[in-house]
Amino acid sequence: MKKRIFAILLCAAMAAMSVAGCSQPTNAPASAPDAKAESAAAPASDKKVKVILITMDSLDQHWVSVDKGAKKAVEELGNVDYKWMAPDKKDDAQQIERVNNAIADQADAIMIAANGPDAISKTLEDAKSKGIKIIYVDSPAKTEGVATFATDNEQAGKIAGQQMLDALTAAGKKDGKIGIVNVNSATASTVAREKGFRSAFEGKGYTLLQTQYGEGDATKSQDIADNYITEGVVGIFGCNEGSTVGAGNAIKGSGKKDIVGIGFDKSDSIFSLIKDGSLLCTMAQNPDVMGYEGMKAAVKAVKGESIDKTQVDTGVSILKKDNIK
């Protein structure tokens, strides 16, 4: 009888221990952090990539087209917080201020067309030290960026020079003075265009006058071109949109349609001057491609994805009266 009672008590004790074991929480502390991690990760995947475009100014149609290309990429990509912040004129201090504003705004990437290779570099280095990706569109600074999307400006300038040379030769003018209206001596893109343009005339018998700078302002550039015309030039080259419009207006105002005007960039004003014969042609870049491809590269860089090409020539076209759309 005692053995039977002992057996019953032993079974009961074992059953109680089994139940207690089953009711014990299994790895509860370990599972809770996983759930929190998943909860925290979800909003992060929905976080928009913040990209800010900073151009040389907000006036030229060229920069409007860069913005347009960037917006097109944003529509396709989705989940991008995009803003265009541009100075109202070409000014190093204003551009530096815009970069500092982008840093304060906690941008993930900055797409920038640098006024010059030096002035903005230190500020861009500061941005990079905070993890901001730098993408160049049109004109780079000396600070290394993730990628650059720009025209081969020296080659494009040489093409512009060849266009003028061909026109002068066809008109029987095998010598004469030629004026160049540039933006300033620091903007890498326009300096390269001038270099290429001058190279086309090496050993050709023409006199290329000292370059004059109009800061990309059409009115200032026209005054410069007027002075060139007074000196008796046979041709004038404008290195950017404002320079081109100024040169074309000066030729138009002089009534001397035999002066060969060659420009750079495209706008309604430039097209009008080509159509009325004040300008022969313009070298048209593809700023919309710069903005579009630049935006895609910026988002890839922020996400840690590889970029196929980091140095891209976005090309140039020669627009004349017969092929302007």
Characteristic key phrases:
single chain, 325 residues, alpha/beta, Rossmann fold, 2 domains, 7-stranded mixed β-sheet, 6-stranded parallel β-sheet, 13 strands, elongated, disordered N terminus
Protein described:
This protein is elongated. It has 2 domains: 47-151 and 287-314, Response regulator (Rossmann fold), CATH 3.40.50; 153-285, Response regulator (Rossmann fold, 3-Layer(aba) Sandwich), CATH 3.40.50. It has 325 residues and is of the alpha/beta class. 50% of the residues lie in helices and 18% in strands. The strands form 2 sheets. Strands 6, 7, 8, 9, 10, 11 and 13 form a 7-stranded mixed β-sheet that branches.
